[in-house]
Design brief:
Helices cover 36% and strands 20% of the residues. The protein is built from 8 helices and 10 strands. The strands form 2 sheets. Strands 3-2-1-4-7-5-8-6 form an 8-stranded mixed beta sheet, sandwiched between helices. A two-stranded antiparallel ribbon has the order 9-10. A hairpin with an 8-residue loop joins strand 9 and strand 10.
Length: 295
């Protein structure tokens, strides 16, 4: 007999990690807050609390200490709190990600009905920048080498076995590391196909490149110089940590990061800063300077 997920919503908690949240981020949280028993809100905003923004979310617990501690430390804290509160699963969300109700209903139902749950570290969905309805009659799944943090559901019974999130990684590669650590324990990362959440990896901007003297413009997605730093340094770290275990996955991910970094150098208005921080990333990695960048 098929389980009804919201008779069992006590199995699920959610967490979201914020950075300078906006009012529309509250609306995003409301798309899943009623589907879980508790929402842990960790705010990385420096200097001021935003607790007043979330008073309307009755099942929320808000945490703020005035520091930006990145993702891995906050995700570990959220998992520990959810484990302490006796939850089986934790939904991890970005502040700009959201669900259609039927999609999250189907998602949780499929998790609860999934065979061999004891071997699944993380579940995830496909994503799109628009709201796409779930194709209920076509939901399948496949094993993935990694899933992005947003809209992943963690099997908390396996958290301590995997070893938690690596706090050497401030941002970037945090999700990749956890998934690789799970695979190293012969555990699976499962993505449901034909079910979606709303998420975008940044909006394209119309930019010219340094090679065209910024005259020829095209739509590109680029990252800040600081983000380039973390991409470069953390990829070197992941390569050292998992290169012998998962050489094909590491090489594939290296190519993804290399394309991102090359595009950022080419299209950034401050490409000299981007190059400088890329070089600092290499130096810091060699000198075992991990965690938050020190400028």
């Amino acid at each position: 007999m098929e389980k009804e997920p919201y008779k069992m919503k006590s199995n699920f908690a959610a967490c979201v990690i914020l950075y300078h949240p906006k009012k529309e981020d509250i609306a995003n949280i409301s798309t899943y807050s009623t589907k879980v028993e508790k929402v842990y809100i960790f705010d990385n905003t420096e200097g001021k609390s935003n607790e007043n923004l979330f008073l309307g979310i009755k099942n929320a617990s808000y945490f703020w200490d005035g520091e930006n501690k990145g993702l891995s430390i906050r995700l570990n804290a959220a998992c520990q709190k959810a484990i302490g509160d006796k939850f089986d699963f934790l939904l991890t969300m970005d502040q700009d990600s959201s669900f259609l109700e039927e999609n999250i209903d189907c998602y949780f139902k499929d998790i609860l009905n999934f065979e061999n749950k004891q071997t699944v570290a993380i579940y995830g969905l496909e994503y799109d920048k628009e709201y796409l309805p779930v194709k209920k009659d076509q939901v399948t799944f496949e094993k993935k080498d990694h899933l992005i943090t947003s809209a992943s559901v963690m099997n908390l019974k396996l958290f301590s076995i995997i070893g938690g999130f690596d706090e050497n990684l401030f941002i970037d590669g945090v999700d990749i590391d956890y998934c690789y650590a799970a695979m190293a324990k012969d555990l699976d990362n499962i993505q449901f196909k034909n079910n979606y959440f709303k998420h975008s990896l940044g909006e394209p901007v119309r930019k010219g490149s340094v090679t065209s003297f910024y005259l020829l413009k095209k739509n590109v997605r680029i990252h800040s110089a600081i983000r380039v730093y973390y991409m470069k340094r953390n990829m070197l770290y992941l390569e050292e940590k998992y290169g012998s275990l998962f050489p094909e996955f590491i090489q594939k991910q290296k190519k993804v990061y290399q394309r991102h970094i090359k595009r950022c150098i080419k299209y950034s208005d401050t490409f000299i800063k981007v190059v400088k921080l890329r070089n600092q990333a290499i130096s810091d990695y060699k000198n075992k300077k991990m965690g938050k960048i020190v400028l």
